[in-house]
Write a structure and sequence with these properties.
The protein is mainly α. The chain contains 5 helices and no strands. It has one domain (2-130).
Length: 141
């Protein structure tokens, strides 16, 4: 029984660490700006900079809140007695934090896409098709 519980805790910890901790590149927004600067029209680049300016503080807050919540997940896993409800609650809070950021990003990006001309939207589409900026994620362990 002990081996079963230990195995479940190991897998829960592994899943939590892999599923909920995906570090962003050091300055994701700077990478986006560098990529877009020479490709967008001047008007389109200003709109993209405005979007980035709106999202930077939200992203910083999400990063902080996620870190705090990951600590709560770790606490539930390391507790003497595993509390499934506490673990589920902590993971749900973390997913909510990320969903809130994604919703804000989508809403704000949609507003910008409405204002961009078709050529600038093509630049954004090409950037999205490339995948996330920064180094690729590490291979699974």
């Amino acid at each position: 029984m002990f081996v079963s519980v230990a195995g479940n805790l190991f897998f829960a910890g592994w899943i939590a660490s892999q599923s909920f901790y995906r570090p962003p590149p050091p300055d994701m927004f700077a990478d986006i700006e560098r990529h877009m600067e020479d490709r967008l029209t001047p008007e389109g680049f200003v709109l993209m900079q405005d979007l980035i300016s709106k999202m930077r503080p939200k992203f910083s807050a999400m990063s902080h809140d996620s870190r705090v919540n990951r600590d709560a997940i770790v606490d539930t896993i390391e507790a003497e007695s595993f509390d499934k409800a506490a673990f589920m609650s902590a993971t749900a809070r973390l997913m909510g934090i990320r969903n809130d950021l994604d919703t804000a990003m989508i809403d704000n990006a949609a507003d910008v896409m409405e204002k961009l001309n078709p050529a600038d939207r093509r630049v954004v589409a090409d950037f999205i098709a490339m995948g996330p900026p920064g180094p690729p994620p590490p291979p699974p362990r």
